[in-house]
Structure formats: structure tokens, C-alpha cells
Design brief:
Elements (H helix, E strand, L loop, with lengths): L1 E2 H7 L5 H9 L3 E3 L2 E2 L6 E2 L6 E3 L2 E2 L7 E6 L21 H4 L4 E2 L8 E7 L2 H8 L7 E7 L5 H9 L13 E5 L4 E6 L6 H8 L4 E9 L2 E2 L9 E3 L2 H7 L4
Parallel strand pairs: 9-13
Antiparallel strand pairs: 1-4, 2-3, 2-5, 5-6, 7-9, 7-15, 8-9, 10-12, 10-13, 11-12, 13-14
Helix pairs in contact: 1-2
Bound molecules: uracil.
The site of uracil (URA) has 8 residues, from helix 6.
Length: 236
């Protein structure tokens, strides 16, 4: 059982204060009967909620795919800099979304935002080894010995050992696809630095079963489809 105001606010369409007004004005019906109070408890899977004659489908969680542009922080708020949450409209900003894992400020690509803490935990847990694939450009062509080093497990300059990772060279080797099974701070940049090269561009293409939608331009977002949510292990 959940509070009516919490449920309606979770749609992102109204604040809790606005829900209070709707209830007072008799605009919210529960199973055909005007809601008694904003804190009324109900089971959304059993009751029909209507607002101004429109039936609401209440989804417990929200899942957003964002094509993160370079130059924006992977954070929920920051006093000075633009964050990925600033790229979403107010009704989504109100839902308590947070980025699942971080991309560096200058990195681009797939970022999942959700308020499903369990799913985020599962996707980020080092034990689960969820594959993340990145496209990178480097300042010198990488070569088969770099591929071997990635496959062995790179040791970073501070002594940290990385899990074996995939490195697939593209073209002359100045572009490549990297597959990581973990997520350490600046991991790819530090792995490439350990090979005496530098990353010029980094874009995440996928995370587990979730693939960046090619139709999303940098800065654009869309909700995940039910199928994408199910495949990831969320609650559609
Ligand atoms: N590795 C990095 O170095 N940066 C990212 O943003 C993601 C992976």
C-alpha cells in the first residue's frame, strides 16, 4: 500500500503540493470514488486511479537513456556546472533519478538514469561483471601488443590491477572498441596511459544489454522501452 500523493508525484506530472489541490477539488477518483485525502493509502496494482477523467498507469520506477554530451557532469546536482539532470525536463527531474555509473565530464555516450536503486546496484556490482563497450580515439595507433596487454589485465601506474579487458582495433588502430567488465575511476584513460598513449575521445556505446540508440543526438534522451527494462532486469 502506498500514499496517493506519493504515487501521483512519482509520475512526475504533479508535485505533492499540487496533488493536495487536485484531491481537494475532487479531481482524483479511486475506483470511481473521489479520493478522500492526499495521504490515502492504496495498492496501485489493484485500484484504478483517474485524474480529470484520465486513467493513470503508475510505474514504480523510471528508466531514461541519455546520450550524454561531452562537457556535462555525471551528477545529480552541482552548484556551478551543468549536470546530466539539467538536460531533463522538470517532470523527469522530480523523480529522483540518478546516473547509473559515471562518465567523465569530457566523455560522451550512453548514460542510464533511473530511480531503481536495486537495478543500479546490480549493474554496477563488480561481482556481476556487466560488460560496458566504449569507442575510443587515441593520439597514436594502438597495436597488437596493446591488445595483448588489455587481455592480460593492465596494471595501472598506482599498482591497481584491472580485470582482463577487450581491445578491438579499428582502421589504423587510432580508433578502437574497449570492453570493460568493471568501472574504475578514469579506467580507460589510465589503461591507455599505461601503454604510453592518450585518449582523445571516449564514447560509451553499451552497458550490458542496453545499447545507445543511434537516433539520439548528444544531449537527447528517451525512456527505455518495456523490453529494454526487462532485459536489463528492471521492473517495466
Ligand atoms: N573510462 C574513462 O577513462 N572514462 C570514462 O568516462 C569511462 C571509462
Amino acid at each position: 500500500m502506498e500514499r496517493l500523493d506519493k504515487l501521483l508525484a512519482s509520475t512526475g506530472r504533479w508535485s505533492r503540493r499540487e496533488v493536495k489541490g487536485l484531491v481537494k477539488e475532487g479531481r482524483v477518483l479511486i475506483d470511481g470514488v473521489p479520493a478522500a485525502a492526499p495521504d490515502q493509502k492504496l495498492d496501485p496494482s489493484l485500484s484504478r486511479i483517474m485524474v480529470d477523467g484520465e486513467e493513470l498507469t503508475i510505474q514504480k520506477f523510471t528508466y531514461v537513456m541519455l546520450h550524454k554530451p561531452a562537457g556535462v557532469l555525471s551528477a545529480t546536482e552541482d552548484p556551478r556546472q551543468e549536470t546530466v539532470l539539467d538536460l531533463l525536463p522538470p517532470e523527469l527531474q522530480r523523480r529522483g533519478l540518478f546516473p547509473v555509473g559515471r562518465l567523465d565530464k569530457d566523455s560522451e555516450g550512453l548514460l542510464l538514469l533511473t530511480n531503481d536503486g536495486d537495478l543500479a546496484h546490480r549493474l554496477l556490482s563488480p561481482k556481476r561483471h556487466v560488460d560496458k563497450v566504449y569507442y575510443i580515439c587515441t593520439d597514436r595507433p594502438l597495436n597488437p601488443s596493446d591488445v595483448d596487454a588489455f587481455a592480460q589485465g593492465i596494471v595501472l601506474s598506482d599498482g591497481t590491477t584491472c580485470l582482463p579487458a577487450g581491445l578491438e582495433l579499428l582502421g589504423d588502430g587510432s580508433e578502437a572498441l574497449v570492453t570493460l567488465h568493471e568501472g574504475k575511476f578514469h579506467q580507460i584513460k589510465r589503461m591507455i596511459a599505461s601503454q604510453g598513449a592518450a585518449v582523445c575521445r571516449l564514447k560509451r556505446l553499451s552497458m550490458g544489454t542496453l545499447v545507445l540508440d543511434e537516433f539520439l543526438k548528444p544531449g537527447e534522451f528517451r525512456l527505455l522501452t518495456g523490453e529494454e527494462v526487462s532485459k536489463l532486469g528492471g521492473k517495466p
